[in-house]
């Protein structure tokens, strides 16, 4: 791929993505693209499909049909002898290296301090030597503002600090795309801002991000565009200003009437 082609290739490209759980159709043909450095906030009602879509980006949920690409590479599948075939777990794990994922719950190892939590993936998944991994992990803890907590265990950290460790862990693998699934939903209100500030700083640094969130003020400030997923489809995608002040979709207006009042 030429440098010009690489520059024009979307970091994320979803084409008619569909996913069902049994008889329940959760994603009903979602198409989205995202360029390098862009920040997309996904909003929508509970059960509308937004978290399933986010998890399908890095194959934590395998899509049933459609195409999901990250950095131009189709995720989870390959063409062989004219047939589209599902990749094995080792190949999928290799593909996931292009993404960093931050969940609602922090998912930290309780028996490891903050530094080793961040370093663990580098050591066990990417084969980085332990001391080198710890050096890289410490730099990420500095980036999220808690290097002074490197030796603290999760039980000694606030919820906001634990989530910042989780963000540092996701950043340690140097992903092309960061995925956040309701990153503040498990936090007490007074801890929310410290996590949002980290995400703001990542946006300002040029990180490409997809963020599922219910935080209206955050979406207004952090997003280049806001996407509403409801009933398994994209109801609207537009700038934050248009989304909140002049929505074109009736489904968006219904959603906003509930969350803004």
What's the topology here?
Layout: H1 3-8, E1 12-21, E2 24-34, E3 39-43, H2 50-57, E4 65-70, E5 73-74, E6 77-80, E7 83-86, H3 89-95, E8 99-102, H4 114-124, H5 130-143, H6 159-171, E9 177-181, H7 189-204, E10 208-212, H8 216-222, E11 225-230, E12 233-238, H9 240-245, H10 250-259
Q: Would you kindly provide a brief summary of this structure?
A:
The chain has 261 residues and is α/β, with parallel strands linked by helices. The protein has helices spanning 3-8, 50-57, 89-95, 114-124, 130-143, 159-171, 189-204, 216-222, 240-245, 250-259, and strands at 12-21, 24-34, 39-43, 65-70, 73-74, 77-80, 83-86, 99-102, 177-181, 208-212, 225-230, 233-238.
Number of strands: 12
Low-confidence stretches: 1-5
Shape: globular
Name the strands of the widest sheet in spatial order.
8-9-10-3-11-12
Q: Helix count, per DSSP?
A: 10
Task: For the record, give the distance between the C-alpha atoms at the N and C termini, rounded to a whole number.
Answer: 49 Å
Mean pLDDT: 92
Assembly of the depicted chains:
single chain
> Level of helix content?
25-40%
Radius of gyration over C-alpha positions, nearest whole angstrom = 19 Å
Share of residues in strands? 25-35%
Q: Note the main sheet.
A: 6 strands, mixed
| Classification by helices and strands | alpha/beta
Order of helices and strands: HEEEHEEEEHEHHHEHEHEEHH
